[in-house]
Amino acid sequence: MPIPTLAEKLEWLKPAKVSSHEEHCAKTLRQGDYEIGVQVTNDILDEAMEIFIRSSRSYFGVSGDSMVAIFTAGGDLINAACGTYLHAIIQPIVIKFILKYYSQNPGIHAGDIWYTNDALYGGIHNPDQVALMPVFHKGKLLAWTTAALHTTETGAIEPGGMPVSAKSRFEEGLNLPPIKIGENYQLRNDFLEFYSVYGLRAPAMFISDLRARCTTADRVRMRLLELVEKRGEEYLVGLLRKMLETAESGARQKIKSLPEGKFRAVLFNDAIGWTPALVRACYLTLTKKGEKLIFDFEGTSPENPSSYNVHSQAVVGHIANFMYEYVFHDLPICSSTFASIDFIFPPNIILNPDKSAATSCCVYIGMQCRNATHNSFAKMAFSCAGLWQQVTAAPGSQHTAQICAGLSQWKLAVSDVLSFSLNTQGQGGRAANDGMDSYGFAWCAFGRAPDSEQVESELPLTVMLSQHWKDSCGHGHHRGGSGAVQQWMIHKVSDMVSMCMGNGSKVPLGQPLFGGYASSTIPGISVRKPGLLDEMKKADSPLTMDLLDMLQKNTIQGDWKYELVARTPKVYQEGDLLFGFSGGGPGYGDPLERDAESVMEDLKKSIISDWTAENIYKIAYEPERRKIDVEKTKQQRLEERNARLARGVSFDRFHQEWNKKTPPKEALQFYGTWPDAKATGPVFRP
User: Considering 182, 213, 247, which residue would you say is the last residue of a domain?
Assistant: First the structure.
């Protein structure tokens, strides 16, 4: 089996060597051809993304958590519309695999439709599925087009596409190496039948999303051929080569402008599946020298027998999310931007597991690599005149990924993720501003929350409340953006199966910067037999649709359950309640330096509570009119600074005491040796 090795994958992420034909075509471009051509590719991709969103069926699709891209004939990424950046940067691995192993048998021809979702062959995890099409003109391969989207069903041992309890890839459902699923622009019926049996929990969504990927990739192909008919083959080949060269030059200049040195960040996860467990999810040493960046993950916890492992190219994809949002934000989404970036993955760590490892929940580990990159670049860039305003704390990465499965009120089989709690996370506090409230998805900056009425019309749920989650943000000189909360009631069906993925119930995932506070952890909350509908009918009911009011005043009766955010599949009855939370962003800078008027504004917007204003920000004010007592505020902040000094100890004393501490033994079962996270033995997988 020609499964790509780690060395092959990392090599294929780099641009292929330029051919003499490409060099010739690039030189034929006239003045203005490049600038106009780049915009044409942007327009083609934007049109395709709109088609993708409108033709998708799953909530990830309609929320825009997707990607459409153009590649050279040799498989190098040229430009993309996102969605989520993590899909685009690693797909050259898939195309270059097809070119290397399948050019002769089964062959690559005009009208082919290829498909894959297997992380062993260059994907993220098996819910992330991509359709690929070659672009031929008069028998000559000129380019490739792709469309990728997370699907919420894979036929695994649990619904939702990301089986938390999977211990090996053999329990994850559909894992499909690159395969030709269509010829002559037609999908093969035998493949559709094979594919559909993995989506029996939600057949309409499963097949509709596959067709959406294919029609989107085909639209890009058609538009590229229209461009070729208008301007010629040499123009397209030259344009794609020029885009590669320009992006690489821009990336090298940006990297060169950063300070030299080594920068470290260490981040942890608080659970493996449904088990509370501490793991060193990412130990990053980032070295910058000249035009080169080296990401070294030595010191990360070993792989484990769960679905919380990440194949290495998926780590690169998560890092790309940060790089394109911040460092390379004004460059094309292009393979050559990573030409001067190298990666070191020691064998058998959680970021480079064995090929039999389950990786369906890899994103909960991979996100910590993105967050570690946030922190490392913050240390690098905060002193740079041209980059300091890009310094931002990591986004609020913890969330409730609630999956609902069963029969809808329309008697249709459904299995989907409620993506409101994903696409409303708070942005981290910024060097010059607060983080944006409910800015998007840590994996998809351009994602948007699905329409609540559409959710109610398609799923057996009623959205009872939807609001910013008070005190979810990390506090600081510039606070993180607020997260959000929704409450869902099972409605118009007798019962429904629900489970939840995620982590961050004990340890916040993103770290704050320069004295800021971490954001709130995420609880898992459900209520059985609450009698909410009966309570709402009462004229004198004390019920309010405010989360803190519900929790503090017990305005909703029933059997309340508080647990980890990751929960096993359970059957819920009509009227039962589920709560979904999206994390706030971590803070930036000392909260005692925050402008008092900004604190009052946060109170008015219900972003923070009075307790937070008084005890964290040390603001003195009249509660009813919220008029600030300026002098008393200054005094309270001075007293807090003095109290900090009184609590402080020397570094040597702190270091001596800190090294004596250790987490409980039961929390270290997946960590490795304490404290250096070395493997304690081989991993057994069924």
Answer: 247
